[in-house]
Amino acid sequence: MTAAPSPRVDRFAELSSEELRVRLREALALYVTAMRYPKGTVEQRAPMWLAHMLRAGWRCVAAFDSDDRMTGIAYGYRGSPGQWWHEQVRRGVTENRGPAVAEAWMSDYFELTELHVLPDRQGQGIGEELVRRLVSGADTANVLLSTPEGPSRAWRLYRRLGFDDVLRDYQFTGDPRPFGVLGRPLPL
How far is CA 78 from CA 15, 55, 81, 123, 163, in A? Predict the structure, then answer.
């Protein structure tokens, strides 16, 4: 007996904050699966994702299969002083590369906050299409993101899209893993 073929990506769609709220459990389950986090992470992350939806310039793009199941999601917003990630990265870049480099990258940027694709869908171009669609509507000079260090599909994707090192082997407060902060000028 052979397995039935899995549904393909049928469509990409930009989601409003209301549309994402309706599908938040599904989106967070996708996130937990893609990141291989414990299931309890959903309850921990939901308030943060809801708060992010209120930020200036917030945008979300998702991929759906032919059964309308979410197979990928990406969202982000305009980064600005006072946001946790902004303050962490600015401090790290300033300490490691100087205030001029921090200012050049962080004075006008879109933060690609989340990008996740179901593991059985990775390597099929979904992540790249999500990034392209998400940042195509950004009205900033740069796009920045952070990702755990180490060889991964995510790193290959970001390099293929022309992202450069902004800060390497950075440890965010509260997370023992080293991260790379990557950026590139917009448009892609």
Answer: 17, 7, 10, 28, 18
Q: What's the rounded Cα separation, in Å, for the pair 14 and 170?
A: 31
Instruction: Tally DSSP H helices, then E strands, for the chain.
Output: 7, 7
User: What type of residue is 121?
Assistant: R
Token readout for 162 is: 């022309």
User: Is 130 in contact with 63 (CB distance < 8 Å)?
Assistant: yes
35: tokens are 């990141």
Predicted TM-score (pTM) of this structure: 0.93
- Tens digits of per-residue pLDDT, 100-116? 999 999 999 999 999 99
Question: Does the active-site annotation cover 158?
Answer: yes
DSSP 165-184: EEEEEE--TT--S-EEEEEE
From the candidates 31, 109, 158, 170, which is the catalytic residue?
A: 158
How many CA atoms, within 13 angstroms, populate the side-chain half-sphere of residue 166? 30
Q: Of 168, 155, 156, which is closest to residue 89 (Cα–Cα)?
A: 168
User: What are residue 110's phi and psi, to 5 degrees?
Assistant: -100, 125
